[in-house]
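thought: fold this chain, then report.
action: predict
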Amino acid sequence: MKALVFHGPGQTSWQDVPDPSVKDAGDAIVRVDAVSICGTDLHIVKGDVPEVSPGRILGHEAVGTVVETGGDVLGVRPGDRVLISCISACGRCRFCREARYGQCRGGGGWVLGHTVDGTQAEYVRVPFADLSVHPLPSALSDQDAVLLADIFPTAYEVGVRNGRVRPGDTVVVVGAGPIGLAAVVTAQLYSPGRIIVVDLAEPRLAAARELGADATVGAREGPERLVEDLTEGLGADVVVEAVGVPEAFEMCTRMVRPGGRVANIGVHGKPAALHLEDLWIKDVTITTGLVDTRSTPMLLRLMAAGRLPGAELITHRFDLDRMEEAYDVFSRAADTGALKVVLGGPQHDTVAVRPKEQ
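observation:
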């Protein structure tokens, strides 16, 4: 099969690799029908995630069709259309028993495209399949559903829920990439008073307005002053960091009110200054976290009911074999206007049969 392989910082290739096979009784082999590229993948390619070793197949977001299962898999069978979660869960360790699947210590957590081969391939082995894939309703297209693999649960759990957004709150989202835009959407489930979005790119700010942001501002156009003006000098109740660079995080800590919350989502590859000389007296809560995906079933129901946007967030579509071109387009979002990039062929109507390795 073909897959996108990481060879070290700045080096990837779409190349032939061996087909995956069932290694453990809880595995499922899934044919990838739609797959997307995450900002975290760009961080990996830049070298910001040193745990990813050369030779790793990247990717952790996909929708596909089950083609084979191990003997212990009970929840899905060959032919089932499934969402592959970005988080795998053993279901037995302390953290899984607390539904904190992102912290799994039994071989799960964020493993796909990180410590085991991922989804940017024609086929993928999914460990702990009963807890790590979700059967999809026929009402959801592949390209809508793939947004539930990561960006919606991450934005909701790590941004909105960790930030404890409440009715009437002023919420600031710094970064209007896919995760930031998903935070704008899911924050509205809690009826905030206003949502303010900060970004460098006007097309992304326009997308934020279309998705419900009440005010937008360029990152170089005085966002801190705007927040101060709109809150009568108090600051925002909740600030969500959705970029992953030191400047964005430090800006968030300056915009939050006393007693407010900063929810960091961004993947940081460099140290950020924590100005405790200013923050120690303000009773500010700062949260970090990896998504657990415990909200995925609820978000699936919302999207199936038409309560969450899907294809509206997708700006570019490619065939699977144009993976390297898709990476280039996504990595140059300021020039290309890319929000979410999705790859995959036409819908499949028949049960998949894996080709034999030659």
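thought: worth noting. The two ends are 10 Å apart (CA to CA).
final: tokens above.
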